[in-house]
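In practice, a research group might receive sequence data for several interacting partners and want a quick structural hypothesis before committing to experiments. The following worked case mirrors that situation: the sequences arrive first, and a predicted assembly follows.
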Amino acid sequence: MSTQDKLEQKKKQWEQNTLNKALSKFPERKTEFTTGSSLPVDRIYTPPQDCQEKYVEDLSFPGEYPYTRGIQPTMYRGRLWTMRQYAGFGTAEESNQRYKYLLEQGQTGLSVAFDLPTQIGYDSDDDHSLGEVGKVGVAIDTLEDMEILFEGIPLQKVSTSMTINAPASILLAMYMAVGDKQGVNNTQLKGTIQNDILKEYIARGTYIFPPEPSMRLITNIFEFCSEHVPKFNTISISGYHIREAGSTAVQEVAFTIADGIEYVKSAIKTGLDVDSFAGRLSFFFNAHNDLLEEVAKFRAARRIWAKVMKEKFHAQNQKSLLLRFHTQTGGSTLTAQQPDNNIVRVTIQTLAAVLGGTQSLHTNSRDEALALPSEQSVRIALRTQQIVAHESGVINSVDPLGGSYYIEHLTDEIERQVWEYLDHIEKIGGMVEAINKGFIQKEIQDAAYHYQQDIENSERIVVGVNKFTVEEAPPKDLLKVDPQLRKIQVTKIDKIKQNRDNLQVKNNLKELRSAAEHKSKNLMPYILDSVRVYATLGEICTVLRDVFGEYQESIVL
Amino acid sequence: MSSKNVRILIAKPGLDGHDRGAKYIARALKDNGYEVIYTGLRQTPESIVQTAIQEDVDFVGLSLLSGAHNELFPKVVELLKQNQAEDIIVFGGGVIPEEDIPALNQQGIKAIFTPGTPIKDVVSFIEKNRKT
Amino acid sequence: MKLIQGILQGKVRPLAKAISLVEDNLIDKEELIDQLYPHTGKAAIWGVTGPPGAGKSTLVDKLIDRERSQDHRVAVIAIDPSSPFTGGALLGDRLRMQRHSLDPQVFIRSMASRGHLGGVSWGCSDAIKILDAAGFNTIIIETIGVGQTEIEVVELADLVMLVLAPGMGDEIQAMKAGVMEIGDLFVINKKDLPGSEKLKAEIEYVLNLSSDNPEQLPPVILASAQKSEGIDELWKKLSTKYQQLVKSGYLSARRKERIKKELSRIILYKVHHLLDKKIALQDNIDNWAEQVYLKKDMPYTMVNKQINRFKKEMRLDDSKN
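A structural hypothesis for the assembly, expressed as tokens:
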């Protein structure tokens, strides 16, 4: 009798004797158990049939294909992840103060949040900006705001992540211009621009232009940076917002990788060599509360991406195969009720990200379901990461959950379902068409709807929301953004428009327009020329809107 | 067969793209038997009001997560009034601090539903305030 | 009625209220429609139909632009299905036309099908009369998707365009079975997708087969609504086709046919209601069914018994008058 048969026999015996006896006395709490994303969960998992072979093929060793166990051989034994708190609100001056505070507290990278007008390419004085200036991030209208934002922060020493998509090229150009003024060479600049437009159409909503010109801007950036800003991550392909919009863990991985495939295809189509840019692609995922499912998700994502790059795009450089990712804990898992409970949720999610092998992490603050986080809440969030790093011991061995029967089962199952989605999207005609058709949006909406229904019916418990509730006094000390902020920004814009060389601005914008009209031109140099003479973000986007048109939302209800 | 169907406009004013809540409420209200019109993202108060009037809705539900509610919600109420459509009832939802709610109520936003509100609360609000 | 004045002056609120009145099928609507009726007949009524996902709404959005460039006033009625279980509906078509919401010369109204008894066409046909009387030059009816309503749109519109897109295999096979005949004009949308030329050829082939007059085949136009390509050609063909309809006298024939169908439908509907009341079907049906179930009465005996009872009552009514 083989070992495997013995195991099966033993399992049957266990079920008949031990288990059934227990079940007859104490039935289980539910007839079906599922993960946070509704994958079925068995009572117990046992070693798979071809255990050893499977190990070599599917898991292998960290730093080796298919990277299931991690992208580096030593992981956190070598270097901890980058602790990077997303911050920004109000004016550039206020945000600058917050960055300096975070760096003093031991944070190792900056992460800039921009307000919505900036993200959608409107100046603070635009009609569309009413009520929105400085609300969810810092307002940037011209290079001057960017200079203030990084005042006293030496750009060669920090790595800066910027959550900016449709106008990513403009903010990157401004960052380069600030570097120039500080005397920092472009080749020394480190950081990431999000620059992921497809997930804006799917989930986040800060798009400006239609897919075709948007994809052009993105590949322009790939090409330009590989030569001039080689240490910058030119894109952060984001599943975070897809998950926030209510997707399952499987959908998060599937749609993010499908987006990644589309970017790689598009860059190759314009003539770039896959290995010239693929090493600068980075990813951004969510960490939710189902700890083990999330760990499996990260492992599956790494394995799938390595396979995609190797088998589909024939990348040669090892770096091109690595799925390097930033993680943020799940904003939508936070509750406005009993907000201190959120600290516990964030701790679980931090563990998920670290056990999943993240390269950098943002931990949410407990009060984010209520308002922008206060300074004290941000500190607790950062401390959570530091406690996991320095006290929990989970960092001492690489991929410590690897080999758990359950984790490996979940990793395989997530991978299997992701491939199903990827095949289907390919059949539809790729990600852009799947988005145009509303297929992706519909899949996410359905998942979100069922999740919410489960909560409404109390089939899913959210502590403090549909169970274990208490009467609470309204929270105090929430951070408020000055409603006068728009006026301050408008005055700044007016002053700049009086003092800059307006003829030069007009000329540079004209050149930008004519470059935009020629599909083969790389727009980055023209955008740089425009920001340097203090053309506003809105002026630059208006030129591009004129040439490219605007995206029309496509959803299926 | 004559019957008065309740029509509800679910709108997203401002620039934020977080429409998970708006889409959920739209679908849940549909499942409760209402006719729901959904505007999509980035609607100005002016376009919301024109839409509400053309669609002859009984309610307008505004969803906003960016924090611009104090500016944008009252603007919708004010414009409805200017267009002699003050009989259309406005309610709101999203990330809205408790302390902002009394002022919003005072300016004519009839109810604010914060995250975690069960759909049956919204339905009972509509049933209580609908024209028969 | 104050409402009527407002509508004739083209005011939005009364117009919108009046449409609700006909949608809700309230009794006041009859007077309203009869008073507005003399003012109707001027608008061109276009029907836009085709399977879900073909891009109808985006196409309508672009057609509004063209109409506005001629300074035409445009009204759109976009129909979505009601849930047969809850009666609720999610109306999302106007999302794609929302940029016109601030143009006072454009009026967009979403309508739920509200299910049965020709519900769509009934509310819709009166809504068209209201919009026509309010002075809109063009009224566009966008239907739900392929199904029975598509046939009904022919009864409502002067001219019907059928919108298709490549890659919808099954739907298109089904269309060929019958719905093809209703199109005065065919649009192959999303022409950038593979298969659009092939689809065009297929449609033309089928049209050729079923036509007695190969000289007068309906045009088939390739377009991309999203990229605004082919819209000018489509719009020009639409206008030409409409002129043809007017000149050939076919338009008035169609409209007469429409009135005929509408009158019969309303008469039958009302008669049905009267009958329903007279024989008190709802009150008695349980009892009758029970008798038949227990085999105390046979099905046709029961039916004829009720009909005879009804006839007798009618004669009684007559002699009273």
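Before designing any experiment, note the following. Residues 116-121 of chain C have pLDDT under 50 and may be disordered. Chain C touches chain A at residues 53, 58, 61, 90, 92, 95-96, 167, 193-194, 226-227 (CB under 8 Å).
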